[in-house]
Every structure is written in C-alpha cells, then in structure tokens.
Amino acid sequence: MGVPKRHLKAVDGSGIAPDPWEQRFRLLASSVRALISVHDAAGSFLYASPLVSELTGVPHDTLIGSPVQALIHPEDGDRVMSLHRGWMRGPAAETAEYRLVAAGGGWCPVETTFVAGDEAEVQWVTRRLDLVGAEPQTAAEIDPATGLPTRFSLLDRLAWALHPAGSGAAGVVVIRIDGIERLVEDRGRPATSVVLREIGRHISSALRPLDLVGQLDEERLAAVCAGVHDATTVGRIAERILEVAGRPMGAGGLRVTPSVGATCAPAGQQRPAALLQAALQVADEVAARGGNGYELV
Q: Are residues 266 and 193 located together in one domain of the fold?
C-alpha cells in the first residue's frame, strides 16, 4: 500500500522539507510518555510517533499506510475498531483498553484515548498500562516553576493505581492553599512557587515513598496514595496532610490556610478524573467555610 500523497516529503533547493505530520505532533510526542498515531476511516496509519515503532518493533515506513488492527490482539481488534469507526461519525466512547503487539513477541496492555482530528481522521493517544505510574520525567509531567509533578502526572499515577494491573485502589487528597493571593500582592508570583514547592515537600515527607504529591494549579496541590481503599485510612492521611500543610514556613513564620478534601475508591468504580474532581470540589467547600479543616467524600 502506497503512502498517501500528502505524507510525501517535498524537496526544494534547501533539501527535504519538514513532514507536516511531524510538525503537528512533534511537541506532543516528545512531551508525554504516549504513543501518538493518526488513522483514516479504515484504521490505516497516517502518522505514527517513534514510540509506536519502539513498542511494536514495526519500522515507521512499514506502519504508514498499514492497518492498525493487524497490531491488535485478535480478541480485541473488532471491539477497538468499532470504537474507531464510531469516532469517524462523531464523538463516541473516549477510551479503550486492549492488547497491542510487542516487539520480540507477546502482547502489551495499553489504553487508547480517541480524539477527533482534521478531515477524515482520528487521533489515538495510547499509553502502556505496564508503564503507567512511573516517576514523572518530562516537561509535561513536572511544573518548571515549582518542580512538582503536574496534573498530568497525578492523573497518570491515579490511572495506574485504579487499574487492576496496578495497586487496585487509590486515595486522593486535594489541598487548597488559601492566602496565596496575598503572597502575589506582597512578594510577587515567584514567591508563590516557592511556597507551593515547600508545602509539597513537607507533605511528601509525611507520606509513603509510593505516594505522589503534585500541583493542580496555582493554589491547589494533590496527593495520590496508591492502594488506599477505605475511608478510615484516607481520613488519617487527610488529617496528617492538614497538620503538615498548616505549619509556619521560613524564618518569618509565614502561614497559609489549608483546606483539604479527600476520597478513595477501588479499581473499576471511578474514573481517575472523576475521583480527582470529587476531592477538589470538597476541598473548595471546606475553604468556603473558612478552611483549616478536612472533609471526606
């Protein structure tokens, strides 16, 4: 099968022009630990990031124009392609878990998120479930100002924790830091990054090495605690975090007001984003009542 004309690289006096697909997806493919691919209505590859070849062992030039179903486990292929065809008609089921062929033989468990693309195409963002939950490393995973893991990293760890192949359960604690706006007025925005970094460091020291503390936005942190499935345990964690986050910081004894919301779930009961949102909402409710407390949901 030939490569579609729009994927051929043009040559001019200066040499080979950049591949338009590489221009579109280079930043995304280099910023996340995910396999990025684009497929036409039949499921043939229009674009594949380097990680696709790395996992499957199929050379890039061979992938382009070939059907993705040939790389999917026979028991999963029809189901996944049915979702793909649904996306060609409009938004459908967002994710699918299945097995993708692995270099050297065997199958790798993956999860694909489908995204509507340009014209008659669907973008696949695929994560290896055997690697989900690894330590944050890339620019998309670490906030450059605070050095803390980002929302992307927190959701990545939470997805791993909630998957049966991971720890099978997770507790989520969201910490809203009130008083940050005063720091912006008094000392400038860089000071807020320092405060968030210090609070994150203190919270991390009070939790297990497996737990991940990261930054949701400019006034909220969160902790993902793998394996936590009961309210008693997550309540003790929330109480410990509240005490640590409320300690005076620095030589001047700077104080902020933490508001903590916490929840937990076993595998299969809640999606990662929904679990995180539940904890975030209850943290905001605690803050609306004056803060300096925690609540479970």
A: yes
- Closest C-alpha to 56, from 99, 85, 17, 90: 99
Residues 13 and 120 in one domain: yes
- Side-chain half-sphere CA neighbours of 159 within 13 A: 21
Q: Which helix (H) or strand (E) holds 220?
A: strand 220-226
Instruction: Give the phi and the psi of residue 164 in degrees, each rounded to 5.
Output: -55, -30
* Domain CATH code at residue 252: 3.30.70.270
Do 120 and 200 lie in one domain? The reply is: no
For residue 90, the enclosing domain spans 5-128
Domain presence at residue 53? yes
CB 185 within 8 A of CB 293: no
- Does residue 139 sit within a domain? no
Residue 181, token pair as written in the block = 């706006």
Is this prediction's pTM over 0.70? no
pLDDT by position in tens, the chain (length 297): 333 333 333 333 344 444 555 545 544 444 446 788 989 999 999 989 888 998 999 999 999 999 999 999 999 999 999 999 988 887 766 788 999 998 877 888 998 888 776 667 888 888 888 766 666 655 567 888 888 999 888 887 888 788 765 667 899 999 999 877 666 556 555 678 888 999 999 999 999 887 899 999 989 999 999 889 999 999 999 999 999 999 887 656 678 899 999 999 987 788 888 999 999 999 999 999 999 999 999
- Number of structural domains found in the chain: 2
